[in-house]
Amino acid sequence: MEKKIEVAILGATGSVGQKFIEMLSDHPWFEISELAASEKSSGKKYQDAVNWIMQTPLNDRVAELEVKNCEPILKSKFVFSALDASVAGEIEADFARAGYYVISNARNHRFDEDVPLLIPEVNADHLEIVKDQKFGKGFIVTNPNCSTIGLVMALKPLQDNFGIESVNVVTMQAISGGGYPGIPSMDILDNVIPFISGEENKMETEPLKILGEIKDKKIVNTDIKVSAQCNRVPVQDGHLEAVQIKFNKKPSKEEIINVWKNFKGVPQELNLPSAPVNPIIYCENEKHPQPKTHRNMGNGMSVSVGRLRECSIFDYKFVVLSHNTVRGAAGGTILAAELLKAKGYTE
Ligand code: NAP
Hints:
By secondary structure, the protein is an alpha/beta fold.
């Protein structure tokens, strides 16, 4: 059997870091060899540094690993970053400059001109720009914001087939999206908070880069108009989004459902280990999708869509659900790493 590729996780103690550990516990290509976090955690055994909140038990071997500092002196060339944005920017750039392949969940490098903002099923062709990155042999690839990912997965086949003029989206976002320990229980229980710092701007700008085209080795943004309103709701995992959409050429309801059901991307063509068979699942029941019932569809990597109906202001409206720490973070990053390896971007 071929030896597995060693990977390191930066920010391993947080909400996304823990999801990485859970998802990589039995990965066919990758093996966790190093964990790193802040000075508060470094030097401790992982099991003593973390407050493990996953629903599966912590792997015995990983529990014993010593947490390291986030310095580019690790042996693993693949580095998955789940770092807090207050520190991610510089640390990730240091790793890339030192020759590491960094795949990040943090916002810091998402709009760097030479950094792809990747959803593997949507814009695998954008990876081409990493060849000319300023970092030399190392590079940075970023994962979009967790609520952007669900939205853009649903939009991609619609944009390709019918052209989109504008989108209005209202989100209902899970508490795990705010990191661990996140919002105090007294604030979120019996409540909805109609504000998530910076989120609306991310949702209004990131789709334009992701759905953009490569021209002369540069990404040219698409010109769709997006308006977003973001809310935090008392759900553990899974972001639900109510979307209104106006097309360049209005399709029928059947045509829309058909392109969603038939949507496949490069990860499915390459049969990558973390690629869901169906990236988009259309739910026929008018009460679906729901976070509790549908967030784990396709091992948390499928996006569920439902309630497609005519809209009296836009052309149509529908609902999208995606798992924020799986498809929206750790799972999306692992799929990106599989794509980078399969496409020959890594040694
Ligand atoms: P989190 O639970 O707050 O975890 C943050 C991690 O960063 C912890 O491991 C923490 O280590 C580490 N860290 C903090 N300060 C550090 C420092 N000075 N040096 C080194 N490490 C430091 O956050 P999260 O929810 O996992 O999110 C991680 C990143 O992914 C963020 O940038 C977030 O915006 C992004 N993201 C999150 C989601 C989601 O659904 N949660 C989805 C997409 C993207 P210690 O425990 O040692 O302090």
